[in-house]
Specification:
Elements (H helix, E strand, L loop, with lengths): L10 H22 L8 H12 L1 H19 L3 H21 L4 H6 L2 H24 L6 H33 L5 H32 L3 H42 L1
Length: 254
């Protein structure tokens, strides 16, 4: 992995592309803000950071965090959460964007182990939460949460199985590098989405000084947003990653 910046981006292009991306992020979040758990910010940020690099992605993340306050209000916990999470997202996917194509073509054992471990963790956690009943929520939402947990389990398990098949086919000479890259990025995006909610579950109780019971109630309630967000991330990143990065790369080369 080579962590660096896209050398084709001049300072003027960085400013222009960052401004356009911030507008897209704000517009996308505003358009879908009425639908809980459905968002397009993650896939846009993932693709932009993969193409533009860590530094430009981090600048975009900070600008987006500041600008959204004008539309959604200044909420301290949300501001802190976004200011930590999105620059971290830029670091992760800005770095992943500089993974050489040859890595996906050769698919080394380390890559297989990391991707499969991430997907197994997500699938295992979903299955455990579903079967154990550890998530204490209102009966009104119980079926909704259970269905989403099964969906996340099915998606994660399927991606893991497909990834393993692709690695086998790769060893037999098949050209599966593109699909391997998609699943790798999707697994990382899903894991980051889960971490987003878990980070909020830490920041909010600490900031407001909530009691243990209140913090647990907030933790359980956050699943109502986290689960559809994770499903949305898996679907949007797996289907839109290659088209969006292709368009962004062409824009950079202009």
């Amino acid at each position: 992995m080579m962590v660096g910046e896209n050398k084709k981006l001049t300072p003027s292009k960085r400013v222009a592309y960052t401004a356009v991306m911030c507008a897209l992020l704000i517009g996308g979040q505003l358009a879908l803000s009425a639908v809980s758990g459905v968002e397009i910010v993650t896939v846009l940020m993932v693709c932009f950071c993969c193409v533009s690099g860590v530094r430009t992605g981090a600048v975009c993340a900070v600008a987006f965090t500041l600008l959204r306050c004008f539309l959604f209000g200044f909420h301290p916990t949300a501001f802190i959460l976004y200011l930590i999470y999105f620059p971290s997202l830029a670091l992760v996917f800005g770095g992943m964007g500089h993974i050489k194509k040859q890595v996906y073509e050769s698919c080394p054992p380390l890559l297989t182990a990391v991707v499969c471990t991430a997907l197994i963790l997500i699938a295992g956690a979903s299955l455990f939460c579903n079967l154990s009943g550890v998530i204490k929520i209102s009966a009104v939402y119980k079926n909704f949460v259970n269905v989403l947990l099964w969906i996340i389990f099915a998606i994660s398990a399927a991606l893991c199985a497909v990834f393993c098949v692709l690695t086998v086919l790769k060893k037999k000479g098949a050209n599966t590098a593109g699909l391997i890259e998609i699943i790798t990025v999707t697994a990382a995006a899903c894991l980051c989405t889960v971490c987003f909610t878990l980070l909020d579950d830490i920041i909010s109780p600490l900031f407001y000084g909530w009691s243990k019971q209140t913090a647990l109630t907030y933790f359980y309630a956050s699943f109502l947003a986290m689960l559809p967000q994770t499903v949305c991330t898996a679907v949007t990143v797996s289907t839109m990653y290659l088209p969006l990065t292709s368009v962004m790369k062409k824009a950079v080369s202009l």
